[in-house]
Amino acid sequence: MTTELSPDALPELLERARKDYAALAARGLSLDLTRGKPAPAQLDLAEDLLSLPDGRHTAADGTDVRNYGGLQGLPELREIFADALQVPVTQLVALGNSSLELMHDCLVHALLGRVPGAESRWVDQERIAFLCPVPGYDRHFALCERFGIEMIPVPMTPDGPDMDEVERLAAGDAAVKGIWCVPKYSNPDGACYSDETVARLAAMSAAAPDFRIFWDNAYAVHHLTDEPVETADLLAACAASGNPDRVFVFGSSSKVTFAGSGVAFFGASPDNVRWLLANNAKRSIGPDKVNQLRHALFLRDAAGLRAHMARQRELLRPKFDAVQRILAAELGGTGLAEWTDPKGGYFVTLRVPDGCAKEVVRRASEAGIVLTPAGATHPYGDDPRDATIRIAPTFPVQDDLEQAMLGLTTCVRLVGYEKLSAS
Amino acid sequence: MTTELSPDALPELLERARKDYAALAARGLSLDLTRGKPAPAQLDLAEDLLSLPDGRHTAADGTDVRNYGGLQGLPELREIFADALQVPVTQLVALGNSSLELMHDCLVHALLGRVPGAESRWVDQERIAFLCPVPGYDRHFALCERFGIEMIPVPMTPDGPDMDEVERLAAGDAAVKGIWCVPKYSNPDGACYSDETVARLAAMSAAAPDFRIFWDNAYAVHHLTDEPVETADLLAACAASGNPDRVFVFGSSSKVTFAGSGVAFFGASPDNVRWLLANNAKRSIGPDKVNQLRHALFLRDAAGLRAHMARQRELLRPKFDAVQRILAAELGGTGLAEWTDPKGGYFVTLRVPDGCAKEVVRRASEAGIVLTPAGATHPYGDDPRDATIRIAPTFPVQDDLEQAMLGLTTCVRLVGYEKLSAS
Fold first, then answer.
1. What's the Rg (C-alpha) of chain A?
2. Does the fold of domain B49-300 match that of domain B9-33+306-422?
3. pLDDT band at A356 (very low <50, low <70, confident <90, very high)
4. Which segment of A4-18, A98-112, B92-106, B112-126 scores lowest on mean pLDDT?
5. Which member of A14, B116, B206, B403 has the greatest number of CB atoms within 10 A?
């Protein structure tokens, strides 16, 4: 962010920003860019689910999907997602409607049970810490906070987390039990982990024998361009590096079919899978297999999944294009902002001058545009530079999104020029 | 169990039992009386669910059920179950497909968080214990065992647990944090808690300020007779007794609609509900509301729920009748067995002479009839008298059930007469 601004121009720019903001506030908007929710039009693409499985209640292997049982989930659905999640079908588990639940439950089972390789339950250890690439996903951080797991921020780069830092921290501190990763189209940067990042994660030394990578592959098939990004296969790399149990892979169809009524997946080494299933066997008599059959019939196969996501992309591309267009038109060359241009996923990161993010979000809120709270992208809600804003363009209709983005850029100009004037 | 047997008759009875057992074993049966699973014919009654909500995706309050959100679950479904579970709609939560999961999660949240009234997390306390009425449900006991919660058995009576014991233990030991209760048609006795039992549970002194009754009302609407048993309202009684937070009510539609794809419920005081929802908010972005809408459309209202259960009863009554008929015909007057005659629920308890239950189960298994392991009805799998066998008549078709019951009675005669002969 270099400003090309001459000091003489500042009063006029500030004056214009103030006028624009007053006009914005006067419009009484009520717009929401907070959460990564699919829009109703995206959900409509899966409308057939609402009458499936249409009288059928038998899985390919003869299982009556209506009854109890089947802790690992339906094989035909696992087959559809195995390639996308880079997990062999036999090591993939299909469960309930939320991958966040699975991450929560894996933490619980590690805290109260003993994860393979652990010397004791995590809850019995004096200190437990997770590495948190920042900016990252607020709900990951909320899980750590809820369980008293210390969070150690690590800066993100366009290739994934700063691996020098990750290696140093994982090797040097046995209390570091894990790291949160969104490897493809990360939340919120849209960054994709490079092959080198994946290789280093698999091979690095970890002081904790029970170190785990929570690999939240939430956007595995959520491409926005003609060049789908393929990240390297961490599960295979871990096995090849002699660390087969290092990774828990998470995935979900929440942003494929219905956000609230999808199917979540867990993939890992055979030992980890046995561990999860043994824990789950105490907790449940099996997942909702009717919903799994419903999804298998709807998506059909891996090609069907890809075709469905291509239809999602047609709806999402214009929204992400609008975000880029408006940011460039309104903030390009001002020196007040930088932003990411993701090739997939659900978010755009907007970086404003240090100390401005909270104020931008506050001003936007006062003008009726609700944004994710500034700081939410960092552990404990604390962005030390107060510079990161997460934009979630998917849910609003196109016109609302464009109005909200224009309003947001007005707020950035207002707060940015106010700050420059004060300094 | 008083035997009317004259010693002279024993050799002949044993001889006949041995012959019958040899003939049974020679038949090469493969029958299963282990688990309380609905039969396919019961599941067929809810077949319409397989094409619901049939294109509809909007709840009564306008919510798009396909998307995220709605942590408390759909009001229209909660309304249908509120009366049956004796929980006001505003204090009832509709969640995923398993009430066992909810019980597990409540334990987890109490262990790792702080339940209302608690002085500290349970995991930070030196000793935690639960009262376990016996015989009881093995999956309750498995949860305690998994989390290192000490189990203290309390004898069941036809009116519920021995309340003198419950009161003594709850009042005298602050480590006693809870009790497992299946108040109506209990698993496996089919006992129903009397009004006095409910009143005493609500009013008794508990040394632990965070004492909780895990009220697993699994068979709330699962009547087998023309005289549906109505147990007293514990949630209201607790509030009236000044112990509003004492009870967690659990329920589920697993044995109403589809065992694996139903909806589970949690009901409690407003403070407890807020506590659960706050914990759930960290774990999930909401339950599967499409499935909740599906159930609301299928069941329609409380009367629809009752009518559906009347159809279930038509299928189950002949099975429970056969169990009674065969037990009476084959073991009546032998002095070898006593059994319960439940007015609802899913189980019959068969009591055999002390020291015989494991052997009966073993002999039955060798003859191709699989029963719930003897001891499963007691904490740690340890029935000190080795006398309790749980019979689950629902899943097999009528003929298989009758074959299995005949075989079981043969095993009881064999093992019982062998024991008498040896003594």
1. 23
2. no
3. very high
4. A4-18
5. B206
- Provide the shortest C-alpha distance from residue A120 to chain B (in Å): 14
Q: Give the residues across from A179 on adjacent strands.
A: A131, A213
Verify cis geometry, omega within 30 degrees of 0, for the bond prior to A393. no
Residue B329, number of CB atoms within 10 A of its CB? 12
Contact A91, A267 (CB under 8 A): yes
Identify the CATH class of A9-33+306-422: alpha beta
Q: How many CB atoms lie within 10 A of CB A400?
A: 16
Task: Name the 3-class secondary structure at A349.
Answer: strand
Largest CA distance in chain A: 77
DSSP per residue over B43-87, as a string? Answer: HHTTGGGGG-STT--B-TTS-BTTSS--TT--HHHHHHHHHHHT-
Q: Where are the domains of chain B?
A: 9-33+306-422, 49-300
Chain A, window 216-255: residues with a beta carbon less than 8 angstroms from a chain B beta carbon = 254
Identify whether the C-beta of residue B68 lies closer than 8 Å to the C-beta of residue A38: no
- In angstroms, what CA-CA distances link B160 with B65, B189, B198, B392? 40, 10, 9, 20
- Token pair, residue A154, equals 């690590």
SS3 category, B391? strand
DSSP 8-class letter at B64? B
Whether the CB of A101 is below 8 Å from some CB of chain B: the reply is yes
CA distances (Å), origin A162, targets A169, A200, B346, B407: 11, 11, 57, 67
Q: Model-level pTM?
A: 0.97
**Residue A249 pLDDT greater than 70, yes or no:** yes
Residues of B whose CB is below 8 A from A285: 98, 100, 254, 259-260
User: How would you label B335-356 residue by residue, b for 16+ Cβ within 10 Å and e otherwise?
Assistant: ebbebbebbbbbbbbbbbbeeb
Q: Report the distance separating Cα B72 and Cα B356, nearest Å.
A: 48
Three-state DSSP class for residue A68: coil
- Tokens 């400003």 correspond to A3
Phi then psi dihedrals of residue A248, to 5 deg: -105, 120
At B307, the pLDDT band (50, 70, 90 cuts) reads: very high
CB contact burial A37-69 (16+ within 10 A = b; e otherwise): bbbeebbebbeebbbbbeeebebeeebbbbbbe
CB A33 within 8 Å of CB A372: yes
Q: The complex's ipTM? A: 0.97
Residues A201-230 pLDDT 10s = 999 999 999 999 999 999 999 999 999 999
Segment A321-333, tens digit of pLDDT: 999 999 999 999 9
Candidates A382, A376, A381, A393; CA nearest to A339 is: A393
Q: Is the pLDDT of residue A147 over 70?
A: yes
Which residue, among A258, A276, A289, A312, would best test binding to B if mutated, counting the most B CBs under 10 Å from its CB? Answer: A258
What fold does the segment set B49-300 form as a domain?
A: Aspartate Aminotransferase; domain 2 (3.40.640)
Query: Which residues of chain B neighbour A49 with C-beta distances below 8 Å?
Result: 290
**Chain B, window 248-277: residues with a beta carbon less than 8 angstroms from a chain A beta carbon:** 254, 258-261
Query: A307-322, pLDDT tens digit by residue?
Result: 999 999 999 999 999 9
Give the residue from chain A lying closest to B145, CA to CA.
Answer: A282
Which residues, numbered 352 to 381 in chain B, qualify as contacts with chain A under a Cβ-Cβ cut-off of 8 Å?
none
